[in-house]
Amino acid sequence: MSEHLQKKAKTVSLWGGRFTGKVDPLMEKFNASISFDKRMAQADVVGSQAYAKALCRSGIITEHERDALVNGLQQVGEEWKNGTFEISPRDEDIHTANERRLTEIIGSDIGGKLHTGRSRNDQVATDIRIWLRDEARILLNILKELIKCFVDRATKEIDVLMPGYTHLQRAQPIRWSHWLLSYAFYFKADYERLEQLISRCNQLPLGSGALAGNPFTVDREFIAQELGFEGVVPNSLYGVGDRDFIAEFLFWSSLTMCHLSRWAEDLIIYSTAEFNFVVLADAYSTGSSLMPQKKNSDSLELIRGKSGRVFGDMTGFLMTLKGLPSTYNKDLQEDKEPLFDAYDTLHGVLQIATGVLATLTIKKENMLKALSPDMLATDLAEYLVRKGVPFRETHNIAGRAVRLAEERGCGMNELKLEDFQNLHHLFTEDVYDIFKYEKSVENRNAIGGTSRKTVEGQITLLENWLA
């Protein structure tokens, strides 16, 4: 290619024919997206290769031209992979950059045919779907590793008992494994939502043109098959204007971060000296610049903090979407930065969470010591239920027993038999059998409960799902 053609390829905009005046340099910078959308380089390359093949099938270009385009694009992709691609100051986005470089490699006579019937509107919609579909599958793998870590710990530590909480008040005894598995099921639901999201995202918009469709009868189903899409977006206006899949991913990211944040908050509390149930590994903790004794759970605090960042990505983008007229508007360029930020945050956080959980040390003796007889007040009420007394009545009786123990400054298990019999005549000596934490836990034996059998059932369910 001549030096003149190379220079021309580097300076002409894709849309420049309509304009005679120069664009304000500040506007060029304001308009550009190459600094962040370059991460879609490979998606843009493969999308363009598939489109070149479709143009050939439609008779718009020859097989020789198709091969030149496909091979030239392959070289562009390799340059991105090995870090030798040089971005030009006039490359306003990844599409401009790739087509400019393609034309430098194979010449404008052939390179200029690639965009026939195609708009950057359907091109970017395709690229971003390819990128999100492929990257979201990576998140699925990382998320599954986190879930597996929960299941592995639950299996190994099934005999550890701890207080269960409501309103952050000690409520009833549960298994530590039961608490672990509760989050495993949160993340399993997140995994399944992301799978469903990928399927909805994996629909081809290419062939929609700028908004009205493609005039060259390109075989869109062929393009979809080439690119691994599950189907074709059936309406061209919808094809170029839809970003619901990004909004949905941002919601998914926010909800998943919400679950991660709640899990982190539990562990932050459990790691305090007041609870002292768990100890974070040094690898996921930091110290204080002033207080030598401090060991801060910064990994967990950052997980909790970054949830707000991801929520902001979602709400900001929804505000961008809500006022747009139909089809493509430049505002949609604002879809990528929140998408990439949320993705990068989840990609890191899920791996940190797995590391924290895998290296966590539990203090089962402290968990056991935190159990107290008053946590068995419900068991006391259920004792009378089994003897035919209505629960509403037994609830009141158990509450009076709790109050009596508090007044006497003793545990409920230290009340005398006559104290219980003064509350109800059906109390007998076997009432003291209820003050056994293991028995209380084992009584919760319906599906989903905290007994050993039901917890093992949860583990089996998750293991089968993971397999």
Automatic annotation (TrEMBL):
<keyword id="KW-0456">Lyase</keyword>
<dbReference type="GO" id="GO:0004056">
    <property type="term" value="F:argininosuccinate lyase activity"/>
</dbReference>
<dbReference type="GO" id="GO:0005829">
    <property type="term" value="C:cytosol"/>
</dbReference>
<dbReference type="GO" id="GO:0042450">
    <property type="term" value="P:L-arginine biosynthetic process via ornithine"/>
</dbReference>
<dbReference type="InterPro" id="IPR020557">
    <property type="entry name" value="Fumarate_lyase_CS"/>
</dbReference>
<dbReference type="Pfam" id="PF14698">
    <property type="entry name" value="ASL_C2"/>
</dbReference>
<dbReference type="InterPro" id="IPR008948">
    <property type="entry name" value="L-Aspartase-like"/>
</dbReference>
<dbReference type="InterPro" id="IPR029419">
    <property type="entry name" value="Arg_succ_lyase_C"/>
</dbReference>
<protein>
    <recommendedName>
        <fullName>argininosuccinate lyase</fullName>
        <ecNumber>4.3.2.1</ecNumber>
    </recommendedName>
</protein>
<dbReference type="InterPro" id="IPR009049">
    <property type="entry name" value="Argininosuccinate_lyase"/>
</dbReference>
<dbReference type="InterPro" id="IPR022761">
    <property type="entry name" value="Fumarate_lyase_N"/>
</dbReference>
<dbReference type="Pfam" id="PF00206">
    <property type="entry name" value="Lyase_1"/>
</dbReference>
<comment type="similarity">
    <text>Belongs to the lyase 1 family. Argininosuccinate lyase subfamily.</text>
</comment>
<feature type="domain" description="Fumarate lyase N-terminal">
    <location>
        <begin position="17"/>
        <end position="312"/>
    </location>
</feature>
<feature type="domain" description="Argininosuccinate lyase C-terminal">
    <location>
        <begin position="375"/>
        <end position="442"/>
    </location>
</feature>
<dbReference type="InterPro" id="IPR024083">
    <property type="entry name" value="Fumarase/histidase_N"/>
</dbReference>
<dbReference type="InterPro" id="IPR000362">
    <property type="entry name" value="Fumarate_lyase_fam"/>
</dbReference>
<comment type="pathway">
    <text>Amino-acid biosynthesis; L-arginine biosynthesis; L-arginine from L-ornithine and carbamoyl phosphate: step 3/3.</text>
</comment>
